[in-house]
Amino acid sequence: MAQPTRSVMRYEEGDAWLADCSADPKLVRLAWGTDTLAPIESGTRWLVAQSRLVHAMPALTRIPEGQRGPVLADGNGDAAWWLVPLDAAEELANIRTVSVKPHGWPLHCPSAGRMLAGQLWLNHPDGSGQLTDPAVLAAALGPGGYRHRTEAPG
């Protein structure tokens, strides 16, 4: 019997993590099993920071891969949702291009390895629980963009 590929295992770990972020993991898996977006409410393990997709794409490339948490995109609605720590709202409050959704806001999402209803994960949940640091996100969405410490002018 063939072993699952590494990316399939990563998606399975991401799906398990996402489902466990829900109050009802079975309901999330049932939604995915019927090709439906699953609503997972923010506020238990993360908050959702929303930006326009047109702003998210350049910001995503400015943030080093090891510092990015999951990012969900809706190509039909020009929206991107960044999963950020529970205390991120204050740090992102003055960034015009992003709004932090309140505790209990439902993020309707596909499983980690799928595109569904125009939505896909630009940065997949991998099961680690890593989230995007709000300071890094703020810098990446800001005018100058985020720079690695070694790239800072000096």
Written description of the protein model:
- The protein is of the alpha+beta class and 154 residues long.
- Helix content is 31%, strand content 20%.
- It has five helices and seven strands; from the N terminus they run H-H-E-E-H-E-E-H-E-E-E-H.
- A five-stranded antiparallel beta sheet has the order 5-2-4-3-7. Strands 1-6 form a two-stranded antiparallel ribbon.
- Strand 3 and strand 4 form a beta hairpin.
- The longest helix has 15 residues.
- It is globular.
Secondary structure blueprint with pairings:
Layout: H1 6-20, H2 25-33, E1 38-41, E2 47-51, H3 53-62, E3 71-74, E4 79-84, H4 88-92, E5 98-100, E6 106-109, E7 119-123, H5 134-141
Antiparallel strand pairs: 1-6, 2-4, 2-5, 3-4, 3-7
Q: Estimate the mean pLDDT confidence.
A: 89
Would you count the extended β strands for me?
A: 7
The geometry reads as: globular
Please mark out the parts with pLDDT under 50 across 5 or more consecutive residues, or reply none: 144-154
Strand content: 15-25%
Short note summarizing the structure:
The chain is α+β, with helices and mostly antiparallel strands and 154 residues long.
